[in-house]
Design brief:
- By secondary structure, the chain is mainly alpha-helical.
- It is built from 21 helices and no strands.
- Helix 4 packs antiparallel against helix 5 and helix 14 runs antiparallel to helix 15.
- The N and C termini lie far apart (about 90 Å).
């Protein structure tokens, strides 16, 4: 260190061409280096004048440490430090001897002095077996946290000091948080303020939701009127606006499937129907009585049947959903063999998707076509057992006749749409 001092001093002097702050810091570093070198020189001159051999004392203390004679090593190092109190090597050896002797507080004190005196072998500090007991203490972890060069050498995955540093950081964050926490009356005021803010935010959220619900209701009414007027492109645009407000609105996805089928976009219609079912649409009698979706059934065949059957079975397993009396039997039949499709005549088919049901029916049953009511036989049968062959044959004979007598006038539809609200609290259910 003494031999390198002239080079260090010249290098520092070359850097004195910076700003005033840099010049002040460099001057302070030069002053500290001068003072350190002066102390070392004076201690060495005093030791030489007294006839004391510092290198011999270091060798003796190292031999005593290897022999396990920690007390003798401490005594030798004390004598050495009385002559050279700022010797970083002697201070570090004293720290190791104190740690082996069980005095961890004294070891930490001498290690701190050694680092302050210029001891720079940080890798040795992090791996020295003589400091193993000291490294297991919280005081050492705090020293590492404050000494950045020493912290760099404690990065191993299995290094316990690394975990100690993480715990120390967490404890300090907790202490800072506790310092900032209000106490007493201030804490009461703080809680009241937090409660007031929460209530305001909750009221704002409810107001925003009510506003969005109102927009969705109005846009769904416009979409159904556009469907009734056969303006399917405008209906699709309006439904897209609804889905932009709430992408999980299952009723809007159902109507979108009907509109896409009316426009001949059967792949998009099947995707929209799949999305509607995925978001919880379970009104399968609306699917069975929708003319556009029946055309989709004709175009897609097994894909349509498999999709509807899969989600119908899911609803049956959950005990939810609304079905026609033939729905369970149709599902079972599809699972065993493909269902042949027979297109209905024009007198029985309905050209408009969507639906408004009578007041006494389930909310899911209110998704029938705008210009027809749900068939009288479309009662809730989600929990009914699968009918036997005789009951199935009777239902198949009666169901078409009831469908043919289920149309209503356009004035009824306009009145129903004007008095309808679309409440999406339950994932887009439609209620009147």
């Amino acid at each position: 260190r003494i031999c390198k001092y002239p080079l260090l001093l010249s290098d520092l002097r070359k850097k004195l061409q910076g700003s005033e702050a840099e010049m002040a810091s460099l001057s302070q570093a030069i002053t500290q280096t001068d003072a350190m070198v002066k102390v070392v020189n004076e201690s060495q001159r005093a030791a030489a004048a007294a006839g004391y051999d510092a290198s011999r004392a270091m060798r003796e203390s190292a031999a005593a440490m290897r022999a396990g004679e920690h007390a003798r090593a401490i005594a030798t190092l004390k004598e050495l430090l009385s002559m050279q109190p700022e010797d970083p090597g002697a201070l570090y050896m004293m720290a190791t001897a104190k740690s082996e002797d069980g005095d961890q507080a004294g070891s930490l004190d001498f290690l701190t002095k050694a680092l302050a005196a210029g001891y720079g072998n940080f890798a040795n500090v992090a791996q020295d077996p003589h400091l193993a007991q000291l490294r297991a203490t919280d005081a050492y972890v705090e020293l590492v946290a404050e000494t950045k060069p020493l912290k760099v050498h404690h990065v191993g995955a299995d290094d316990p000091v690394r975990k100690g540093l993480q715990d120390l950081q967490f404890r300090r964050q907790v202490e800072k948080a506790r310092e900032k926490m209000p106490q007493g009356e201030e804490l009461v005021r703080y809680k009241e303020e937090m409660r007031r803010r929460y209530e305001e935010q909750l009221a704002e959220a409810e107001a925003r939701k009510a506003e969005v619900d109102a927009q969705i209701n109005n846009k769904l009414k416009d979409a159904i009127l556009s469907i009734y007027k056969k303006d399917f492109r405008r209906a699709r645009t309006t439904l897209r606006e609804v889905l932009a407000l709430r992408a999980t609105h299952k009723t809007a996805w159902f109507h979108m499937a009907c509109v896409e089928a009316e426009l001949g976009r059967f792949s998009d219609a099947l995707d929209a129907l799949r999305t509607s079912l995925h978001h919880g649409f379970e009104t399968f009698n609306a699917i069975e009585t929708s003319a556009p979706l029946q055309r989709l059934r004709t175009e897609k065949g097994a894909l349509f049947e498999r999709l509807v059957a899969e989600y119908r079975l899911r609803s049956l397993n959950k005990g939810t959903g609304t079905f026609t009396s033939l729905a369970p039997a149709r599902t079972a039949a599809f699972m065993t063999a493909p269902r042949p499709h027979t297109p209905r005549s024009k007198s029985n088919s309905v050209s408009r998707p969507g639906a408004i049901a009578e007041e006494g029916e389930d909310e899911d049953a209110q998704l029938q076509q705008p210009h027809k009511r749900a068939p009288a036989s479309s009662s809730l049968a989600s929990s009914d057992p699968v009918p036997d062959d005789a009951a199935l044959a009777s239902a198949q004979a009666v169901a078409p006749r009831r469908r043919r007598s289920s149309s209503v006038s356009s004035n009824d539809i306009l009145h129903l749409v004007d008095s309808t609200t679309f409440d999406d609290d339950d994932d887009g259910e439609l209620s009147s």
